[in-house]
Fold:
Amino acid sequence: MAKAGTRGDLWGKETTKAVANFPVSGDPIPVPVARWLGRIKAAAALANAELGLLDEEQGAAHRRCCMRIANGELDDQFPIDVFQTGSGTSSNMNANEVIASLAGDDVHANDDVNMGQSSNDVFPLAVHLAAPRRARSRPAPRARDACSVARSEGARVRRRHQVGSNALDGTPSRHTRSGVRGICGAGAAGIARVRDAPPTSRPDSARRHRGRHGSQHAS
Structure:
């Protein structure tokens, strides 16, 4: 599947189909998630070489390509919309196709690169590993700002009534201020989860996950 001469688009037909199938937001998956896919697949290539499923040369070639993703050299090769299939199947295959394109002639994205990995494992793991730093730097401060604005607005309209989501079923209306309190409470709980996430989202959690769900093929 190697492409010679020019880099261009390194993905294959599965990625192309996914781009056409999910024209939702125009935003691709976050760059940190794509880079973690590279790191995870580098580890899988190492494990598969140790198991004899790839020869030493193949394993080394796969790892080099994976680390190019991990190091940010190929950020523009992940075009699929962030709103895609729930398990990240399309982006998992996107990574496989990019690696196969660079790894050498006759390298198959599914048989040689993916080699038994499940997107149900790979993609959520990439998200969990990428999330802590991004969550600390972006969503948490924004959530706090949003709660502050909501509280101010709730105080201003505290006697105004808001129709409940189940009003047609007889649910009584409630004050807007009560709804704001609920929103802010949910936001505070989310911020707490972000704050507590790093200890459970470090790379060593990937090793624990691998130990619980190990199989013949790396996943």
